[in-house]
């Protein structure tokens, strides 16, 4: 029995009062943490991280498209050489190609079309008819029944010795390298953003511990263990992290929705086509949403975990 | 329960604030700790609650050497000690109810299991009507009683009170002393640091520990 019970209480009164008690306040007061600034920083960082992650995904997906488009095409160049009829060579080469399994279509570029391809390099207004410009045959390869390119090359050499097959592998490799570089840069930016956010959270936590020094001291005196105190800070920071991540993640979803809307409106314009070639139509798809949700959850958890870790380390150093 | 053996404490490189302090506190005992201002009463209290480490000597509390306690053990030990600070140390963002309930909350108890207990104690110290008030709107006497209630709520084995009647009128001082005597009778060892001779005269059965020039003199 409690010693003060013998002097007072009327149990019924106590129960009446007991119902009036509101829910418990947080031990770390909300206004003692630079909450608003931290929420803004976390929101911006989450938005940028979501942007970086999704741009990496979009570029990676788009690069797969580019490479498969390019891989489904090959080009035959027929060089005019003295003593051979280039028109006959083009015709023979095209026929040899059409006979080869795996080649769906062989389209012969007319002389004027082949010359037009040189215009961007040589400029307009030149008479190219006197120049020995190579002739082009564009092959569409079957994606399902892949042509044996080595065999194709041999067939071509046998049929027309002055023809060269270009399967675009150099270009495909460059595209692959470029896409990998873009994804790596986006991943690096993502990591830097998370690191910057971690620094901001760490600094806000240290400031909060300093501001709440007296509370920490009282909690210690009444017997609170360090993990209990660290958890109180963690709850406060996790709530802030969650709020910031929700705003940032929501902003990223809104951004991609807007980008998709404008990409569709500007389709078929010059700039729109370039953007579409680079990023697709900005549709982030289910994987993009999953990334944003995971990121938001991760940011909230990271904020809470970091603050707990820093407070615990600080208290252990004090101890 | 509590033993000090040749304890000395020095702040920085100055002279020792406490020198060769030796005493024992028995369970269920009652003592006043007194001495002139600056004699080291608060320092001694801080040593007992392990907020300070002695420069030399041995402090043994509840059978354990405080120098060998881990952070967890220190927390565990502090839960058996109730402390009333001279400056109350109430948390301004918590209501009186929450302040008083703090030691139980720290123990991880569900709020529903201690609600009646806390309200009962608040009523006992005359603050039943102020349970929802925040410390910033309370008088010095009310804060004092709230701080006492917080120290008592977990029914500690040892209660330390630093000038608990320093901010209250003589009538309230008598009431507070009565409260400590009740606590003592219920089995808690009590140490009250005070200058107030009239307060000490009201309970002549208490042992007197007098700090002067950094040394402790005991009057049984």
Automatic annotation (TrEMBL), chain B:
Subcellular localization: Cell inner membrane; Cell membrane
Subunit structure: Homodimer. Forms a membrane-associated complex with FtsX.
GO terms, biological process: cell division
Gene: ftsE
Molecular function in Gene Ontology: ATP binding; ATP hydrolysis activity; transmembrane transporter activity
Record keywords, A-Z: ATP-binding, Cell cycle, Cell division, Cell membrane, Membrane, Nucleotide-binding, Transport
Superkingdom of this protein's organism: Bacteria
SMART domains, per the entry: AAA
Function: Part of the ABC transporter FtsEX involved in cellular division. Important for assembly or stability of the septal ring.
InterPro entries referenced in this protein's UniProt entry, alphabetically: AAA+_ATPase, ABC_transporter-like_ATP-bd, ABC_transporter-like_CS, ABC_transpr_LolD-like, Cell_div_FtsE, MacB-like_ATP-bd, P-loop_NTPase
Family, per entry: Belongs to the ABC transporter superfamily.
Gene3D superfamilies assigned to the protein according to its UniProt record, in alphabetical order: P-loop containing nucleotide triphosphate hydrolases
One Pfam family it belongs to: ABC_tran
UniProt protein name: Cell division ATP-binding protein FtsE
Membrane topology: Peripheral membrane protein
Residue ranges of every copy of the ABC transporter domain listed in the record: 2-220
GO cellular component, one term: plasma membrane
Classification via PANTHER family: CELL DIVISION ATP-BINDING PROTEIN FTSE, IMPORT ATP-BINDING PROTEIN
Xref: CDD domains: ABC_MJ0796_LolCDE_FtsE
Main location: membrane
SUPFAM superfamilies in UniProt: P-loop containing nucleoside triphosphate hydrolases (SSF52540)
């Amino acid at each position: 029995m409690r010693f003060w019970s013998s002097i007072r209480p009327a149990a019924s009164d106590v129960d009446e009062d007991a119902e009036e008690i509101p829910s418990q306040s947080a031990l770390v007061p909300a206004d003692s943490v630079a909450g608003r600034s931290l929420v803004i920083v976390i929101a911006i960082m989450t938005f940028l991280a979501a942007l970086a992650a999704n741009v990496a995904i979009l570029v990676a997906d788009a690069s797969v498209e580019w490479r498969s488009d390019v891989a489904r095409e090959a080009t035959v160049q027929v060089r005019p050489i003295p003593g051979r009829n280039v028109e006959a060579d083009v015709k023979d080469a095209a026929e040899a190609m059409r006979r080869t399994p795996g080649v769906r279509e062989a389209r012969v570029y007319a002389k004027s079309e082949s010359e037009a391809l040189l215009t961007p390099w040589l400029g307009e207004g030149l008479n190219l008819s006197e120049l020995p410009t190579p002739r082009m045959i564009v092959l569409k390869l079957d994606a399902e029944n892949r042509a044996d390119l080595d065999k194709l090359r041999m067939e071509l050499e046998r049929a027309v010795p002055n023809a060269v097959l270009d399967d675009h592998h150099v270009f495909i490799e460059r595209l692959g390298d470029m896409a990998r570089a873009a994804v790596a840069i986006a991943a690096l930016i993502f990591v830097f953003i998370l690191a910057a956010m971690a620094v901001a959270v760490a600094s806000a936590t240290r400031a909060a511990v300093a501001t709440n020094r007296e509370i920490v001291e009282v909690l210690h005196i009444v017997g609170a263990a360090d993990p209990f105190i660290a958890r109180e800070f963690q709850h406060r920071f996790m709530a802030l992290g969650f709020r910031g991540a929700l705003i940032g993640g929501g902003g990223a979803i809104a951004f991609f929705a807007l980008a998709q809307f404008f990409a569709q409106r500007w389709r078929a314009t010059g700039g729109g086509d370039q953007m579409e070639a680079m990023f697709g139509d900005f549709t982030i798809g289910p994987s993009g949403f999953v990334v944003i949700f995971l990121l938001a959850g991760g940011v909230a958890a990271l904020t809470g975990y970091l603050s707990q870790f820093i407070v615990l380390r600080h208290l252990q150093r004090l101890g | 329960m509590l033993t000090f053996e040749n304890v000395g404490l020095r702040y920085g490189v100055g002279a020792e604030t406490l020198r060769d302090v030796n005493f024992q506190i028995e369970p269920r005992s009652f003592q006043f700790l007194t001495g002139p201002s600056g004699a080291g009463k608060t320092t001694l209290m801080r040593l007992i609650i392990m907020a300070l480490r002695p420069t030399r000597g041995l402090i043994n509390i509840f059978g354990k050497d405080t120098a060998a306690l881990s952070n967890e053990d220190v927390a565990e030990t502090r839960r058996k000690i109730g402390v009333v600070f001279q400056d109350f140390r109430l948390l301004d963002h918590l209501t009186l109810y929450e302040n008083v309930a703090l030691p139980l909350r720290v123990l991880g108890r569900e709020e529903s299991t201690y609600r009646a207990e806390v309200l009962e104690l608040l009523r006992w110290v005359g603050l039943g009507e102020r349970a929802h008030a925040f410390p910033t709107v309370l008088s010095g006497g009310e804060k004092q009683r709230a701080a006492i209630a917080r120290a008592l709520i977990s029914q500690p084995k040892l209660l330390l009170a630093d000038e608990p009647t320093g901010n209250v009128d003589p009538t309230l001082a008598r009431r507070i002393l009565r409260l400590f005597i009740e606590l003592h009778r219920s089995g808690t060892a009590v140490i009250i640091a005070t200058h107030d001779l009239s307060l000490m005269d009201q309970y002549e059965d208490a042992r007197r520990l007098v700090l002067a020039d950094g040394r402790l003199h005991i009057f049984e």
